C-alpha cells in the first residue's frame, strides 16, 4: 500500500480571500480558483498543498489541527505575518513557550516555531 499526502483542507467562509492570504504569506502559487474552492501549493507540481473550501459557518472553537512553521528568524517572521494580517492568540501556550501562536484572518491558529534545538 502507498499513500501520498496531497493537501490539507481548510474550511472557510471566504476561500478566495483566505487562500490568497495564505498564498502571499507562504509565497505559494495558486493551482485552482473558483468561488467555492481555492488551492495553493509550494509549486504547481509540488505537494502537499492547502485547499480552501467554502463552508457557511464561522470557526467556533480552537482548531483541532494546525500548521507549524520553522523560519530562519522567528521575530522577523512573526512581525511580517502580523503586518500581513495575522493576529497573536493565546491558546494556553504560556509565556515561556518557544513558539508563537498566530491566527489567520478567519481565526485558524498556526505556530511560528523558534530555532531548532541543536
Automatic annotation (TrEMBL):
Annotated InterPro entries: Glyas_Bleomycin-R_OHBP_Dase (IPR029068), Glyoxalase_6 (IPR041581), VOC_core (IPR037523)
PROSITE patterns associated with the record: VOC
Occurrences of domain VOC (ranges): 4-115
Pfam families in the record: Glyoxalase_6
CDD domains with a match to the protein in the record: VOC
Protein name per the record: VOC domain-containing protein
Amino acid at each position: 500500500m502507498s499513500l501520498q499526502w496531497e493537501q490539507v483542507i481548510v474550511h472557510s467562509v471566504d476561500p478566495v480571500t483566505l487562500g490568497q492570504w495564505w498564498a502571499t504569506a507562504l509565497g505559494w502559487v495558486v493551482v485552482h480558483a473558483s468561488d467555492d474552492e481555492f488551492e495553493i501549493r509550494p509549486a504547481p507540481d509540488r505537494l502537499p498543498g492547502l485547499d480552501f473550501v467554502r463552508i457557511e459557518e464561522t470557526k467556533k472553537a480552537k482548531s483541532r489541527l494546525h500548521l507549524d512553521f520553522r523560519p530562519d528568524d522567528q521575530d522577523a517572521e512573526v512581525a511580517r505575518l502580523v503586518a500581513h494580517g495575522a493576529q497573536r492568540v493565546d491558546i494556553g501556550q504560556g509565556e515561556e513557550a518557544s513558539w508563537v501562536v498566530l491566527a489567520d484572518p478567519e481565526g485558524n491558529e498556526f505556530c511560528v516555531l523558534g530555532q531548532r534545538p541543536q
